[in-house]
Amino acid sequence: MPKYSLVVPTLDRGHLLEGTLDSLSKLDHDSFEVIISNNSSSDDTEAIARRWTETDPRFKYVKTSKTLCMSDHWDFALRYVTGDYFLYTGDDDSFARHLLRVLDQCLDEDGAEGVYWRQALYYHPSWFEENRAGNLYIPPLSGRKWLIQAKDAIQQMFDLNPPNTFPIGMSFCFKTSIVNSLLEKYGIFFVRPFPDYTSTMMYLPSIRGYLYLDTPLTIVGKSADSNTAAYMNGSQARVQKFFEEHDGPVYPHMPLNYTVIFNGIAECVKAVQAVRSDDLGGYHLDWARYFISIYDAAWIHKETLEDTIDPQEFWQALHKMPTKVQMRVMSYVSRVKVYNLRQRIKHGLAGRPQKNGAGAANLHKGDFCKKVSSLTECSQVLSERNLELGYS
User: Fold this and answer.
1) Cα–Cα distance between 136 and 130 in angstroms, integer?
2) Predicted TM-score of the model (pTM)
């Protein structure tokens, strides 16, 4: 039985999956398995997966009988985990080559019940911005580690203000026995809609705390086929497909149905609370922050999939909330409108247009950057960079 199970859920991205599997095969550890879970892809995913299972006994291949929504697919793949601990990774992502050795120390020597670490970012060569395509960006981090209380992380999620230290499932090591006990009790682990958030929300009430590593050990891949690219490049078909895969409402616990990322994160909190009401029933969502964040996403940043959204729906939902919530939201909206009006007047009188996109221009300011050709090379470069800085 391996110590670690690395689970790779995949759907119609065989051309990216190959690089992820190659990178994982070169991890510096002698006790792990890779579970490739095919969500009934229509491309060459199965042929690629079987080439790996036929040549490397550490690789296993499973396939759903039909295409499932993401959370249901992750739950399906969980059935095949045999390791003492498991990690999930995207089919265009990977890890630093020395990750599992780092986890050995955290789990064996520090006795951690869960471990969360930070991420580097790789823009695959297919990325639509030429100046970023093929670049690996490693953020400047401290390399420190410390224990975070689970109850504090849970409260931050209900406050809808998670810091960088809040664990996301794609960069988290779960203890299999704890998760199996949750499955036995609740019948589900990866609650809808975003399994990388709901998994840790399900897990945290069962542990005292987790070890946080301020070290980049995951490589998050961005390609022309990623959901992020769909939002940024104006092609929303892939994101729309994500919502269509759900056989029911995506946000059943939310007062608004706007297709913005933040709405999904808030839904994750309430959905897990509904499942684990015995442990999470005493927490309360910050509804004022919810409406403020939805307002920003819908009208300031314009992140919705819908071409137009009805402001009346927003205000009607808000007016059903307690007066204190309404006052906080209306005060914020008024300040934003006054600020925007002043900015338009200021730039209009000066005869120059308002500047937009400054945040995007500074996205990787201060990051270590290197041009690389593949995820496998990214894994090696990231390990070498951490070693150079004394983080391994």
Assistant:
1) 13
2) 0.93
Mean pLDDT per 10-residue interval, the chain, length 392 residues:
97 96 98 98 97 98 97 98 98 97 94 97 92 96 97 97 94 98 98 97 98 98 73 60 84 94 96 98 98 93 78 95 98 89 68 56 90 97 96 81
- Token pair recorded at residue 232: 């940024």
Given the structure tokens 């391994």, which residue do they identify?
392
